[in-house]
Specification:
single chain; mainly alpha; globular
Length: about 160
């Protein structure tokens, strides 16, 4: 864990600074600053667009009475990718763009799910579900989400569909 923190807080900013200085030498100071602002603006636009699409999918899954596991993971990945794109730097921008594009985000999601499944099988991680109506999915039914029971009525303050 200490080596990862060292990598995160010392090596990554040093590499980012070196890359920005090199780009500044190639294209100049003001175009480099413009590039930083352009990637931040493009990143915030993409993060908002992908985040809203994921939010709609999340709400749709809930309306169908299914658990939105994929949508939750996508939401976290989009949040992290947006933060990386807003952070000045070339390396973080590249990683953020990879996290925002749906095809590469699907690859990352599959990798994370595989790692989580391995950790659960090796008993190096535990997953607790503590809300009513959930039973493990039926492996024989590919459409089974494990959710059962009745949906609760929507509270009066959530009647507006804009939320």
């Amino acid at each position: 864990m200490g080596a990862r923190l060292f990598l995160l807080f010392l090596i990554v900013p040093a590499v980012e600074l070196a890359l920005l200085l090199q780009i500044g030498r190639w294209i100049g100071l003001w175009p480099t600053i413009g590039l930083i602002f352009a990637t931040a603006l493009a990143g915030s636009f993409l993060a908002r667009r992908e985040g809203m699409a994921t939010w709609r999918a999340f709400r749709q899954r809930l309306a169908e009475g299914k658990l939105p596991g994929r949508e939750l993971i996508d939401g976290v990945l989009i949040l992290l990718a947006g933060a990386l794109l807003i952070t000045p730097g070339v390396l973080t921008d590249l990683l953020g763009l990879i996290g925002l594009l749906p095809p590469t985000r699907a690859l990352i999601r599959r990798y994370l799910m595989r790692r989580l499944q391995q950790a659960l099988q090796q008993q190096t991680a535990r997953l607790y579900v503590s809300f009513g109506g959930f039973t493990p999915p039926d492996p024989a039914d590919p459409d089974s989400s494990g959710w059962s029971g009745q949906a609760r009525p929507r509270p009066h303050y959530l009647k507006d569909d804009r939320l």
